[in-house]
């Protein structure tokens, strides 16, 4: 798949007595075009020129989005004014369930007191992809948050996926669908507040990726550490073994993990582990399913300028 972000903006500036169609150059678009916009991002389009100068109050502007594709990708579109008094159309994207990039194409219209400025946004929403080497039967990859969607080749028979110095997941492959391995080590506020005396670490796979086979997950930790899974605001102890400096357990679905130096209050009893690698495909998830998700915040700015002197 071609990893480019298409972004074009045509501008119309309308006055009471005339209408002008103008093609403009956009500040920052060259850099912006190198990326796919991630779900949950904010896109700011500057409203420039005389149109901006004539408006002194936020309430005087109205924005409307007419979609050709991707309406479900957008959470909201509103007028935003920064500290310098400049106005923007602020488009907030949904933190949506996306694995393969999706098109967002829409006409953006801003009106005020009979004046109108229009632009067209044409972009992709999703994540960059990492492709496993088609010549390697045993794939070894380091998970990268800037390209977290891993696309396997039909020739690949196993994968070792390294998550920095935090963890290693090893799993068998047979025509495995792409998986979104985006992860975070940010604290979970509810767990932190309920266990103030504990030393806690966190590892969360935001997309909850599911594999066809049960694999081996190793999360590096000090000896004597406790391991929990956090789901639906509940902690469940994981019956992990300890060897080689890591807490080890079997799973085909990666979620949110809490590593603690002591037992945590309010946690449920240990859940049984799924079958080993030779077990049924999708044994703990009910089938070959890869939940698609989005995560991340990226601010992108492009000018939606109205030129004077039509």
Structural account:
- The structure is a single chain.
- This protein has 310 residues and is mainly β.
- It is 5% helix and 44% strand.
- It contains three helices and 23 strands.
- The strands form five sheets. It has a six-stranded mixed β-sheet, with no helix packed on it.
- A hairpin with a 2-residue loop joins strand 7 and strand 8.
- It is globular.
- The N terminus and C terminus are likely disordered.
Structural class: mainly beta
Strand order of the largest sheet: 10-12-13-17-21-20
Q: So what's the overall shape?
A: globular
Helix content: under 10%
In angstroms, what is the radius of gyration?
A: 24 Å
What can be said about the biggest beta sheet? 6 strands, mixed
Please state roughly what percent of the residues sit in beta strands, choosing from under 5%, 5-15%, 15-25%, 25-35%, 35-45% or over 45%.
Answer: 35-45%
Uncertain runs: 1-34, 278-310
Give the termini distance in whole angstroms: 41 Å
The SSE order reads: EEHEHEEEEEEEEEEEEHEEEEEEEE
Count of DSSP-assigned helices? 3
Number of strands: 23
Q: What's the multimeric state?
A: single chain
Q: What is the averaged pLDDT score?
A: 76
List the keywords.
mainly beta, 23 strands, 310 residues, disordered N terminus, six-stranded mixed β-sheet
Q: What's this entry about, in short?
A:
Helix content is 5%, strand content 44%. It is mostly beta strands. The N terminus and C terminus are likely disordered.
Write the layout of secondary structure elements.
Elements: E1 10-14, E2 19-23, H1 29-32, E3 42-47, H2 49-54, E4 62-69, E5 74-81, E6 87-93, E7 102-112, E8 115-125, E9 129-131, E10 138-142, E11 149-151, E12 158-163, E13 167-172, E14 179-180, E15 183-184, H3 189-194, E16 200-205, E17 210-220, E18 226-231, E19 234-237, E20 241-243, E21 246-253, E22 256-260, E23 299-304
Parallel strand pairs: 3-23, 9-11, 10-12
Antiparallel strand pairs: 1-2, 1-8, 3-6, 4-7, 5-6, 7-8, 11-14, 12-13, 13-17, 15-16, 16-22, 17-21, 18-19, 18-22, 20-21
